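Hi everyone, sorry if this is the wrong subforum. Our group has a chain we'd like a structural model of before ordering constructs, and none of us has done structure prediction before. Sequence below.
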Amino acid sequence: MSHIRPHRKNVILDSISPGFPVYCPKCNSTRVVIFFDYRFSPKLRTKWRELINEKKITLENQWEKIKTENQWKSLKKDSEKPNWICKECYDGGIILEYEIDVKILDEFKKFEKTFTEKSNPLYWDKYGKKVTLQEIHDKSGIGDDSLVLIAVTREQYNTNNFSKYRKYVKNTLNKDTIYYGLWPDTKENKVEYDILYTIDTTNHDEIQKHLNLHNQINNGLAQKMALIIDKDGNWKIQNNENI
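Answer:
Right subforum, don't worry. Here is the predicted structure as C-alpha cells:
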C-alpha cells in the first residue's frame, strides 16, 4: 500500500540584514531578522531597503498599532509593511517608517523646558540624535577649515512644516545632510525650531548669498544670521547685512 504525501507549497521569504544593530523592543536583543512577504513588488522592496539602509525604521510589536496599520493597508495600495522576528525571544511584528518629526518634537519639548534666551543653541542630526557643533564640524570631513551652519526655517514654533523644509533642502538645495536645532527667539520670547544645512566655505559673500536664498519659502523673510564653526567647535555669528 502506497502512502500519498500531502502537497507542500514552498514559500520563499526574502530577508534583509540592515548592516547596523536593530534592537528587539521586547528583550533588547540584536538577533532581529527582517523579512519581506513573497508578494512584495520589486518597487516596494526597493523602497523599504532604502528606508532600512538609511535607518528610517522602527520595530512595532504592539498589536493595537499593528491592527491599525493593517486596516489602513486594506484601504491604501502599496502600503504593505515588512515583518520582523527576534531569534532570542521569538517576539515579532511589523516594520514602520520612522516618524522623525515625532522623535524631534519629543526631544525639543524635553530640552526647551529649561531653554532661555541666554541658552546656547542645541542641535540634533537627521536621526534625532543630539550632536554638538564639534561633532557637526568633524562629520563634514573638511579638516581644520571652518564650517558654516545655516537655517532654512524662520519663525517656526512647531514641526508641522518640517517635511516641506526637508524636501526643499534635498530637492532645491541638493543637500543630503540636515540638522535640527533649538534657537532662542528673544523678539517673540519663544523657542524657535530650526532645520539647518552646512556649507564648507567661509567666504563672506557666499554666506551672505545663502542668508538671502530662502526668502520665498519663509514668506519673504530672509535669514538673520549664520554660524561659523571652527575645528574646535567654537562658533561665531555672521549677521545678514540686509536686515
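For your construct planning: The chain has a mean pLDDT of 86. The longest strand covers residues 190-199.
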